[in-house]
TrEMBL record:
It catalyses: oxaloacetate + acetyl-CoA + H2O = citrate + CoA + H(+). It holds the Pfam family Citrate_synt. The lineage of its organism: Bacteria, Pseudomonadati, Pseudomonadota, Betaproteobacteria, Nitrosomonadales. SUPFAM superfamilies: Citrate synthase. InterPro entries: Citrate_synth-like_lrg_a-sub, Citrate_synth-like_sm_a-sub, Citrate_synthase, Citrate_synthase_AS, Citrate_synthase_bac-typ, Citrate_synthase_sf, Citrate_synthase_typ-I. It comes from beta proteobacterium KB13. Pathway: Carbohydrate metabolism; tricarboxylic acid cycle; isocitrate from oxaloacetate: step 1/2. One of its GO terms (molecular function) is citrate synthase activity. The active site is at H306, D364. This is Citrate synthase. It comes from the Bacteria. Transmembrane segments: none annotated. Keywords: Acyltransferase, Transferase, Tricarboxylic acid cycle. Belongs to the citrate synthase family. CDD domains: EcCS_like (cd06114).
Amino acid sequence: MDQKKATLTLPDGKIIELPFIEGKMGKPAIDISQLSQHGLHTYDPGFMSTASCGSAITFIDGEKSILLYRGYPIEQLAEHCDFLDVAYLLLNGELPNQNEKTKYVSEVKKHYLLHDQLNSVFRGFRRDAHPMAVMAAVVASKSAFYFDEMNVYNRNHRKISANRLIGKVPSIAAWSYLYNLGRPFNYPRNDLSYAANFLNMLFSSPTQDYEINPVLVRAFERILILHADHEQNASTSTVRLVGSSGANPFACISSGIASLWGPAHGGANEATLKMLQEIRSESRIGEYIERAKDSTDSFRLMGFGHRVYRNKDPRAEIMRKTCHEVLSELGLENDSIFKLALKLEKIALEDDYFVKKKLYPNVDFYSGIVMRALGIPNSMFTAVFALARTAGWIAHWNEMFVADNLKIGRPRQIYKGKLLRNVSLDRNVSKD
Ligand SMILES: CC(C)(COP(=O)(O)OP(=O)(O)OC[C@H]1O[C@@H](n2cnc3c(N)ncnc32)[C@H](O)[C@@H]1OP(=O)(O)O)[C@@H](O)C(=O)NCCC(=O)NCCS
């Protein structure tokens, strides 16, 4: 069957035929990769209309509020799986059977411990450094530990790197916080689940064990699952772009952490809680809603809106339920921040501005409240997101090498600067 084509008519009447990609799940695209042969580029700031790659990992339908990892709905994964099931799924394409799971868990746990030399890397930072700054730097520093033996084009090397990263990132995240507090670095425990191990590292101390509460561990597990991947967002695209040059995987993941830190991306859960703490009382909600609607004010309602979900964020509903479960387990149903959040949500959802622009609460609106209830400090919210997203980042990084048309990422630009000119021999001459 002939391939369908899209036609592009240029101002001079020239017609260019472009391959039309049917796409799966009703998501067609136009292949413009040959346009440069005609001396043309497309212009798409923010990649609003550009697919930078093909991927079989995650599917999102923002209009229909669908999120699938390898074809499985996020709701089912959050209900029936743990985080390492999901990490395995993202990396390998299938959920593990019992044997595969046992083997995978033991492979990941083998990499839990950090090199002892990393103690000195942590100790080089100011005590008040933000955990994300420390995490980005420490993860990047691991490329100096695993450099010589690393060949990114070798499948087995990539697999070991994935296990190393998923195994070590919980300790790196927890230690970034412990260093901040001046507390001793807790070691990981292989006898605990991935989620429980992280909470234990964060909260136990040599003088006091951390009491593992299964409801709280499950809630944390859900946070990890919901944040594990989200196709070509800013940080994942960053990881792919850095990785496309053949860079060391630790350096790639570090660049993802740096990108994630921004408040428009992973920093939103921290920003949401800060905003709720700043609003403080229900009587001030109206003032903040008005500010969010004011186009001359840069303030936005944090935890609302999403680049891809132009309808509800399917993760938000799961997080909302989890929020209720955690607060009820801890007897915090009357928590003032939670009540404020519910009130703000209600007012915003009934407001014409938010309704017309289809701005709904996103997953970050609730995940901050859950993490606060678990005792996780604001400054660690994005670090937890990075911990979860490491699974997605490394799956995308790996997929990039499996794809048969791996090319170094090199976007073009529309030049807006000065036209060709000569260096003046007299620099005092006016520069217009
Ligand atoms: C996520 C986000 C960056 C998406 O941005 P985007 O896809 O570029 O969407 P836009 O910035 O074009 O927003 C579309 C319109 O909605 C408005 N808008 C979007 N999010 C808004 C918010 N949270 N509060 C108030 N107005 C918002 C924009 O001002 C814009 O209005 P305009 O058309 O009059 O200019 C944006 O919604 C945002 O900043 N949200 C708050 C941060 C957040 O929660 N991020 C977490 C994402 S998981």
